[in-house]
Specification:
single chain, 104 residues, Alpha-Beta Plaits
Length: 104
């Protein structure tokens, strides 16, 4: 399993557009086999920092999701919006979970 956390802060004027872009790619993700990945986006208390937490069963599904056109558009618009610093990308390992993510 691959687990990735991405954290970034947008300018106040881009928050709403970023939310719309996230909704767009999430709509496309929901049309895929969600039994092999889990993707959640959070808006932090400051109202400008977003955290995306993704769990992928394998590298194949990760690559597939990262090539979805609406996701690529989201990334481009986000990066072109003038972020406060670079997105922070963390690859993590599950230490324990209350449920199984994917069937083996």
């Amino acid at each position: 399993m691959i687990v990735v956390k991405v954290t970034y802060t947008v300018n106040p004027g881009f928050v709403q557009q970023n939310m719309e872009n996230i909704k767009s790619f999430m709509s496309d993700f929901k049309k895929m086999d969600t039994g092999i990945f889990n993707y959640v986006s959070y808006l932090c208390e400051d109202g400008r920092t977003f955290v995306h937490l993704s769990h992928y069963k394998n590298e194949h599904i990760q690559k597939q999701l990262l090539q979805v056109p609406s996701f690529l558009s989201f990334q481009k618009q986000r990066d072109d919006s003038g972020l406060e610093g670079l997105p922070e990308i963390e690859v993590m390992n599950v230490a324990a979970s209350s449920h199984d993510f994917f069937d083996s």
